Amino acid sequence: MRDPRYDILFEPMQIGPVTAKNRFYQVPHCNGGGYRDPSAAAAMRGIKAEGGWGVIFTEQCEMHHTSEITPFIELRLWEDQDIPALRRMSEKMKTHGALAGIQLAYSGINGPNLYTKEVPLAPSALPIRTFTNDPVQARALSKSEIRDLRRWFVNAAKRSKLAGFDLICLYGAHGFGIFQHFLSRATNQRTDEYGGSLENRSRFVNEVIADMRDAVGDTMGITLRVSLDETIGELGFSNNEVREFIEMNRNLPDLWDLAQGTWEDCSGTTRFKEEAAQEQLVTGIRELSDRPVVGVGRFTSPDVMVRMIKSGTLDFIGCARPSIADPFLPKKVEEGRIEDIRECIGCNICVTGDMTMSISRCTQNPTFMEEWRKGWHPEKMNAKGSSDNVLIVGSGPAGLEAAWALSRRGYDVALAEARTELGGRVSRESRLPGLSAWGRVRDYRTYQLSQRSNVETYLDSRLTADDILEFGFQNIAIATGATWRRDGVARQHVVPMKIDAAAKIYTPDDLMDGNVPGGNIVIFDDDHYYMGGVLAELLVQKGAKVTLITPSAYVSDWTNNTLEQATIHRKLDALGVDIVLNRGVAEIAADHVVSDCVYTGKTQTHAADAVVIVAAREANDQLFHDLLARQEEWADAGIRSVKVFGDAETAGPIAWATYAGHRYARELDGEPIGDALPFRREITELAPELAPEIAPELVAE
Ligand code: FMN
């Protein structure tokens, strides 16, 4: 039963000519699949519909071929032929009464047009701004081209309608969409009636919305997504100017969609941003307009959501990441199952799918983007197979996820943990600076396990192969994690590096165990994700003087993909960490390290009382191998399967571990698939009947 406190979240709300069934608004978010994986993307949105969202948007959709953001994979609406794939998505969105929204993007100075080879067009001639600094410039739109662009928006709006959408969001936020480029004095340096005063800079968006209203406004709601603050100082579209703009254009869109400045700011991670972090920027804007307002802020708590509505700050609760971590968030609030909400941990692994043009993942929700590819549902497991029980060794993210998923399938599960707390690496890492939200991976699952009668948990239980062969479990799941290497083996050194026996060497595990060195500390980061930077923070907190040496051109390089890299650099710099880039560590002596330039090999000496090596991790797979060595005893012991997964198979980010645990649980007792692919692809979906003709000998095999 729904708690009446949350009733307000379920009030129907008008957006122009259409009505949302509640205030849960899934703002646009990409997924790494886009136009390449339309079935996967459509099924993912369909799951959100089932989960109770009142409004569901696509990711940004390139609305004309003269502005596209290759290599990033979003949606495309370049011609009528794009309509069927998009219609499939809108149909899925609408299955449970949600409004289906499409975000139209014309990327201006963010579209390098690497695929179409068209000349990029923008309000003013400026170099294209992309993550990769493509050596391409945009040309200023002529007035007749502005008229063309208005017509292209109308065409896109008509196609959106044909594709079945109820809402159109015009993208002018995050520095990305052309509307922002017109609104900001930094990117609009025109001297005609489209540049100069705020009124002039607002002209283009006014014209486009008027045109679109004429074309589709009787049946479709038109929303405008603008940045709350461009955060580039005086010249930018500041929070004050945004307010002025909204007041001046009170009733311009049917809804104001407000999102903070850059994408990095807007999708800030828990390491740097709290829930509702944009509240101050958005407060008071609602009073400047008669139209409803949606805002974002990694909202996972229904109490915070209610506060945002009751305080008159927002009309709709916008969610991207929380809707990925738990597509059933609204439904769980509605059913009074607050404690079942799988909270986003704010790690931005979802963003990395987009940034690496792969397919997105979610640490908390391993079924994300596997709804169609693998038929995985976030709330439903497949039926139990022929065996009955599983012993899981290791309660890190892989083991916990496997335990929860297996128990839902109906297996009896025993979960053995060598340490005195559950959670493995997520528990240990959650005590490091900025990473407390990692604990949600454990907390969600341990709570769920505590509600089930078919799971037994054993702490302080370090098992041997002898123990396991005695116990009589049918399936043995080894999820014993990994250990940070002490010998420097990673990318620069593929064999153990030169380390003086008198040198004091620490690994991330040592620091997580509370052995934190003081004095002059060198961190050698050849891991390149968050750990090196986080340990630098920890060491500074404990009073050490830190030099961080990394062979990469960026500190914590891979966090470029989680949008955190610049913030990490700023933070470490502010803490006084000496950041040494493009250098490896050739040798570690008793009181110094010798670094070497990755380009020239030139060496340099750095004083060091101790060195923290953040290198590769080694799988803790001894138990697995001990069991494998005694395979002939399995049958007598009643063992049907022994499997290793997660970091114990090979180390990766936490999301890889929850995925591996989930996959193990889904596949237990499944039919072997031989050489077949373990997931569906668009191409195989399109051409199954052609396979025998193409490669008869392979099919016959
Ligand atoms: N915002 C857009 O306007 N268009 C996009 O295509 C888009 N893609 C995103 C992809 C991912 C994976 C994420 C996490 C965010 C994206 N955003 C995009 C920003 C979100 O809409 C949202 O403003 C931001 O993530 C803050 O909301 P949240 O805290 O609920 O995640």
Write the SSE topology.
Elements lengths: L12 E3 L2 E3 L3 E3 L11 H13 L4 E8 L12 E2 L6 H11 L5 E7 L15 E2 L3 E2 L9 E4 L2 H20 L4 E6 L5 H6 L14 H4 L1 H14 L4 E7 L11 H10 L6 E5 L3 H4 L12 H4 L10 E3 L6 H9 L5 E4 L1 H5 L3 H6 L14 H7 L33 E5 L3 H13 L2 E5 L8 H5 L9 H12 L4 E4 L6 H7 L3 E4 L3 E3 L13 E2 L5 E2 L1 H5 L7 E6 L5 H11 L3 E5 L15 H10 L3 E3 L2 E6 L3 E6 L5 E5 L2 E5 L2 E3 L2 H7 L5 H4 L3 E4 L9 H14 L14 H5 L4 H4 L1 H5 L1
Parallel strand pairs: 3-4, 3-14, 4-5, 4-6, 6-10, 7-9, 10-11, 11-12, 12-13, 13-14, 15-16, 15-18, 16-17, 18-30, 20-25, 21-28, 22-23, 22-28, 23-24
Antiparallel strand pairs: 1-2, 8-9, 19-29, 25-26, 26-27
The structure holds flavin mononucleotide.
The CATH topology of the largest domain turns out to be TIM Barrel
Give the proportion of residues in helices.
25-40%
The span between the termini is 55 Å
**Major sheet characteristics:** 8 strands, parallel, barrel
Q: In what order do the strands lie side by side in the largest sheet?
A: 3-4-6-10-11-12-13-14
Task: Determine the oligomeric state from the structure.
Answer: single chain
- What small molecules accompany the polymer chains? flavin mononucleotide
InterPro entries: Aldolase_TIM, FAD/NAD-bd_sf, FAD/NAD-binding_dom, NADH:flavin_oxidoreductase, OxRdtase_FMN_N, TMADH/DMDH_FMN-bd
Domain NADH:flavin oxidoreductase/NADH oxidase N-terminal: 9-338
Pfam families: Oxidored_FMN, Pyr_redox_2
Keywords: Flavoprotein, FMN, Iron, Iron-sulfur, Metal-binding, Oxidoreductase
